[in-house]
Design a protein that fits this description.
- By secondary structure, the protein is mostly helical.
- The protein contains seven helices and three strands, in the order H-H-H-E-H-H-E-E-H-H.
- A three-stranded antiparallel beta sheet has the order 1-3-2.
- Helix 2 packs across helix 6 and helix 3 packs across helix 5.
- It is globular and about 55 Å long.
- The two termini are 36 Å apart.
Length: 160
């Protein structure tokens, strides 16, 4: 019986120290942590974490979208998106209503208060993006976006 890929990789690295600092996944996670910190600082007195912002922004640009579509669009777990929506609903920034014929489907809509929060956050969010990529030249930014998109396309689940 031949060894699995994982076993072979394990045999190659046994005894070797793993350099986490230069692993792509670790670097992506660290950059995401930096982005969240910058986002929360920019949000200031507005209690709106990035995932709630993404949900609110998508719901505004796709009126009466259903929760499952929203979860897919913002790359969030469809099982836990309900909690995100519930928090936005509690803040008065979003409403949920059942579908006429399918009780499992919940459609979401942004309230006037939610739209006002998005308007307030718009400039702040753009500034965070500028700060995050500030060290890069225009050419580097273009290359970064192209590379990230290529990776996302390559690893996109078949049903997405």
């Amino acid at each position: 019986m031949s060894p699995t890929t994982a076993q072979a990789a394990n045999a190659e690295t046994s005894g070797a120290e793993i350099d986490f600092a230069h692993m792509p996944g670790h670097m992506v996670r660290k950059l995401q942590q930096i982005q969240v910190a910058l986002f929360m600082e920019a949000a200031g007195d507005i209690d709106l974490p990035p995932v709630q912002f993404a949900a609110l922004a998508y719901a505004q640009s796709h009126p009466h979208t259903d929760q499952a579509s929203l979860a897919r669009a913002i790359a969030y777990d469809p099982v836990t998106i309900g909690g995100v929506i519930a928090r936005l609903e509690k803040k008065g920034w979003i409403t949920r209503e059942g579908h006429r014929t399918d009780r499992r489907v919940k459609r979401v809509s942004v309230t006037e208060a939610g739209a006002a929060v998005l308007e307030e956050m718009h400039g702040r969010v753009l500034k965070v993006q500028q700060i995050l990529l500030a060290p890069l030249s225009q050419e580097q930014k273009a290359a970064w976006f192209a590379t990230m998109q290529e990776l996302l396309d390559y690893h996109r689940p078949p049903d997405a």
